[in-house]
Amino acid sequence: MYNSAEIQTTSIRPAAAQPSELSAYTSAIDSNSLFNHGNVVYIQHHGECYLLRRTRNNKLILTK
Fold first, then answer.
1. Which CATH homologous superfamily contains domain 4-63?
2. What are 29-40's pLDDT values in tens digits?
3. DSSP string, 5-35
């Protein structure tokens, strides 16, 4: 599990990203904070509603 300081420096980035490219990917949200009230999060994006769901296997599924 990552602490918040580690997330700020090791956040979401493509597998091929080089260390010099990390500055473009330095903000992340810990999924535990999103799912602290259950396994479903609704996201509004450009007038559309999306559903982000955490599965029993701890995978994430985003559906429209």
1. Complement Module, domain 1 (2.10.70.10)
2. 899 999 999 999
3. HHHHHS-S--TT--GGGGGGG-----HHHHT
